[in-house]
Every structure is written in C-alpha cells, then in structure tokens.
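CORE FACILITY INTAKE
Project code: CF-77B
Contact: R.S. (postdoc)
Sample description: multi-component assembly, two entities in total
Requested service: structural model of the whole complex
Turnaround: standard
Below are the sequence entries exactly as provided by the requester. Do not edit them.
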Amino acid sequence: MDPRIREHAEIIANHSVDLQEGDNVVVDAHPVAEDLVVALHEVIGDAGANPMTVSQRTGARQRRAFLRAADDDSEARSASNASGGTASFDTPEHELALIQNTDVYIAIRASDNVTQTADVDPETSAAYQQAHRPILEERLSTRWCLTQYPAPANAQLAEMSTEGYERFVWDAVNKDWDEQREHQANMVELMDPASEIRIKSGETTDVTMSIDGNPTLNDYGEHNLPGGEVFTAPQPDSVEGEVLFDMPLYHQGREITDVYLEFEGGEVVDHSAAKNEEVLTEVLNTDDGARRLGELGIGMNRDIDRFTYNMLFDEKMGDTVHMAVGRAYDDTVGEENEANDSAVHVDMIVDMSEDSIIEVDGEVVQEDGTFVFEE
Amino acid sequence: MDPRIREHAEIIANHSVDLQEGDNVVVDAHPVAEDLVVALHEVIGDAGANPMTVSQRTGARQRRAFLRAADDDSEARSASNASGGTASFDTPEHELALIQNTDVYIAIRASDNVTQTADVDPETSAAYQQAHRPILEERLSTRWCLTQYPAPANAQLAEMSTEGYERFVWDAVNKDWDEQREHQANMVELMDPASEIRIKSGETTDVTMSIDGNPTLNDYGEHNLPGGEVFTAPQPDSVEGEVLFDMPLYHQGREITDVYLEFEGGEVVDHSAAKNEEVLTEVLNTDDGARRLGELGIGMNRDIDRFTYNMLFDEKMGDTVHMAVGRAYDDTVGEENEANDSAVHVDMIVDMSEDSIIEVDGEVVQEDGTFVFEE
C-alpha cells in the first residue's frame, strides 16, 4: 500500500477526530477508496476502537437506483390516485439509531463517476435529503471528518492525471497541521478583533465589509481534511463595492465563470457572469439571504496550488479569498450580531496572488499573496 | 445490467424476506456484488422501504486489517504488562443499535479473494465473533436472507469459469420457488410423521436413525437463497451403521475427502478420511456432541448439479443427502426429544444418484435419486 495512504489514515484518526479506545466509529466510503478504508481499519485496530463501514453518503450508484425507483413508484401512485407525484421519504430509524450511537464519523469522498446522479430529479434528491436531515444533524454532533480519496474519476474532474492528482491530494492533506495552525493563527489574530475588511484585486474588485463582533475561526484540518482557511461572517448589511470572482465556480454540475457582483448596503444590486449567468441569477433569487454574504474566508493552504472543481480544496487554496452568498455559520456570528439566513451557501473565489491587497482596519495585511507576518 | 441480477433481487425481496413498505433494510455486501446491491436498491425504492448498505459481515480485507492491528496492539500491551496476549473486543453498540432497528437483513456473499483472512489468528477471529454474538442474534430476529453473488473469486473456488459460475448460481437461485416448495413438501409429508430413516449407498454406506417426534422442515429459499432441502434432527442416541461421505468437505480452508464414520448407539466409534484425516479427528474431538449427528438433510435443488466448495449450495444439491455432526437446530427437535448440543455443526454429503436408496419406516422413498412421488 502507498505509504501516503497510511499517513492519511493516521492524520484522520490522530489529528482530525482524536480517536480514542472504545470509540464507535463509522467509516462512510465508496469502494474506490478501499485502500484508505483498510488503512483506517489498521489505525482503528491499533486504537482499540470499533469500526463499521457503510456506503450511505458515498454510494451514489445505489442511491440513484433507489431514488429513481422511488420516483417511478410515486408517479405510478400519483397516476392512480392523483395525490401528487413527488416521492416522499421517511427518516430511516435504523440509520438514525446507528449514528446516535456513533462517536466518530469519517466520510471519505471518492467516486467512480462524479456525475452518477445526473439523471435523478433534483426535487426527489431534495426530498431525500430533507428526510435525512436528523441523521445529518446527528453526524455533526459526533467527532466528524470529511476528507477526499484521490480516485481516478475525481482526478478527471480536476482535469489531472491520476498520479498527479494523488500527489496533489496527499500534499494538501499529509501536512504538519500544528505548523499550519500556527501560520493561520497569525491571520486570526489580525482579523478577530477587527472591524473592517477591504479586499482589492485587479481593476474591478474593491469591496469593504464589517466583521465587527464576529469571531474569526481557524480551520486546520479537523472537520475538513484538508483544512487551511480562516473564516468569519460579514455583517449582512455592511458590504459595499464590487467583486470579480476570477476563479470558476461549479454549482450543481454547471460551471459559472467570471462572476461579477456589485453590493450596496450589503445587497447584491447587480450581477453578471461570462458563462451560465442564468444559474447565478437563480442562486441569487433563492431568497433574500441569497443576495447577501454569509462568509468571508482566507485560503491559506499553499499545497493547494490549483483549482480542482472541488470546494473541499478550492476554498483553502493559498493566496485566495472566498466569499459565500447565503447562510452564515452560527459560530462565526457574534451573539449581538445578525446572522445572514438562506437556503443556500455558495462559495466564490478571488485569486489574490497578483495585484491584490487585503486591508484590516486600514492596514495592509496581505499584498500579492504575501502576509505581513511573513515578511 | 444482466437481467438475471434484477430477477435475483426480486426473489430476495418478494420471496425470501417479504419486503414491505416502510421496512428498514440493511444490505451487507462486498463491493464486487455492486450490481446486485444496485438492483436491490431499485426493488427497495419500488417498495417504499429504507435501504442502508454496509460491508460488515462481508468486508474481509478491512476486517483482516482491523483484527491484525488489534492483535499486534494486544501483544504490545501484553509485553508491557504481562496480562495475556489475545485481543479482546467489545460488542459495538452502534452496530447493535443499527440491527435492533432493522426489519430486513440481507447478506450477500461475494469476495474478491476467498482466502483474504488466511493470515488472521483463529483465536482473534473467534474472540471477534464472540463479541459480535449479540449482533448475530439480532440479525436472526429480523426477516433475514443469506445469498450469493457470483464473483470471479467465488467462481475460482468452485473451479469454474466466471460465466459458467454465473449461470450455475442464477439457475439455482432464480427458480419458481412455489413449485420447488411443493416438490419438497412431498418429502416432508413422508418424513415428518416417520420414525426410522435408512440411507444406503454403494458398498459401504448403510445407516439407520430415528427421527421420531422431530419435525421435518421445508427449506425453499427463505433464509438461504438458494434453498432446496428438507431437513430434521436424528435422535442423538439412535444412529447405527456406517457412512462413506463421497463428496469432499471443506472445513476451515482445508479439504477433507472420503470421510468414513461408523456409529454405535449414536456415537462415532470409528472414523477415517483419505485426505486431512487429522482435521476430521479434531472436529470429532471438539466435545461430546461433535461425535453425534445433529442434522439429516435431503438435497433437492436439482439446478445445483455439482459440488462448488460452498455449503450454501452443496447441501442443497439434488440427489444427495447430508448429515452434520454437532449441534442440532432447535426447530428440528420435538419438545419431548433431546437436542444434540455442540460448539460445531459440520455438514458432510453423500451422493445418492447411483446405487442408493432412502427408506422411511421400511418403505423405499428414493432410489438412485428418483423419489417415489416422481414416478
């Protein structure tokens, strides 16, 4: 077995989820990630914990089969009794009971075809996810981790060779996370007490926002592996200016390029995109919160040196910032402050490596990708 | 997808486990059985039930990794504190909670290497199984089914081509089970009220036993798919005579051929084998019950027309009988009768297709593989 896989497993267990003797562990993985699942079982055996492997979140082909059959079935019922045609789902009590008794939940993203659910009705998927919401909430109450195995289909999505993508993933994941945490802590120290942030890049992007009273968090590879960002929430009414997101955005299987947003009083008052602008319009029209920012993040994992159409990596790319329209994370909003609420949370990325600055309360803290604390 | 896979899934759902709307279903399968797992998800979606896929019973490579790591770990602990070197295991509460909330449990045997656990310490495996006993008992209280997917490694064990083995498995599984049940009911009608059974085959085999008061059961593809036997328990003290089991026996990875047993007062008083006789001796010396019969079965699935080193199939082979030394199944023992008890249950098979008869209370009911009710 590639020694990087065993190292990945050890980082998950010892750094991300702090595996303990007696822990009841669920590993949720597609079979293409088998090597990492096996390595995790070695680490779990070493620790004296109890492993169980499922393919619930990750088994896309079987989920597609189930959802399409449920759909056909409800259409057939609908035709016979005219009681509406969308499939409905129960919260599966057995899966809920499993997760309620789980201490550690490890989800390994990997696929043999990233478009496996392309022909599932989005409304059916949404109904299924809605029924699974209590299970999702239980997962989030465990010591959980979401990570990536570099399967060939994921390399293909990234437009990379499999070997090249393996190197990319394991360089980003198998890091000295203490060192990364300390590096990022420098930026948290600057942002956490600050009021105003200004992002300038190229000829178009120049935006200011207030983060006054909102905590800045340090993501160093715990719930997300790789980690590598510091992030907070802007005050919903405070955003002013314009942003050109020059990294592509991949939303529900469609690529949106060169997203441009203009803000007044926190709200998006103008927008455009070079490709698939109508998808962007649809996102912004979801609800009121979808036209305001819910997150500002600073990507600080320099081993993530390219865009791979995978937000688990893209938003942590070194020398980038990202802003999300839509829902703010609760723990990034101070008690006194308003949290932006929305059904969506869509991240968009600005390259900050050239002709760019980040200002915190009027002080330049990053210029062309170099932080003040690096000089 | 091969239409025989969908048919297999429908038989599991509609015949074996009687799938109902709202059922919480666990499918336990190795990834090589993915096509059947997907077909089951279609059928489960049709039924409006809730599927969940695990690879607990079937994920041999990950279990090997876990058990070996647990072993090394306990050896390390033992070296440091001298408290004994065998790994110990807890009953995983999350897995138990899952199965306690499960209505239907479907285990699909399939492997990419049937000798995957060859280098796991048998004592460690036994300790692991012991810890999982409450989970096994919960599984047996669901509507459960054990079946086989014809993976290449299983074909190799059977010494068959993959295509040939696929045909073999699906011929044995995708049957008209109502017809098979009726065919077998003829034999149940003869045996259930009977007292004495005599099995004669070739020059050596001639054995009599009492089944007085013990129910004869009809296995037509419910818990085991394929099914295809009728079976009961002999009275432990009643077996007299000698048997040459001319079909090979595969026990814990070792083949035993031409097992010969001589019975007096129910007990094995002499035994031999052409190959691996010492393994047979070991089995018979397990405990007192291991030297007495716990089962007599009549194989009646004529689509199983060859020996494949897989007891799920072999014991149902048409024109055979099998006898097991060791533990009797509770539901084959009448309330007034004694049940043979043992830690083992090892089935052995006699070919009845030539120069053979089965007598029930002195009447010949089968001769050279043909039943009286077939004439």
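Facility notes:
- Chain B has eleven helices and 20 strands.
- The radius of gyration of chain B is 21 Å.
Invoice: internal transfer
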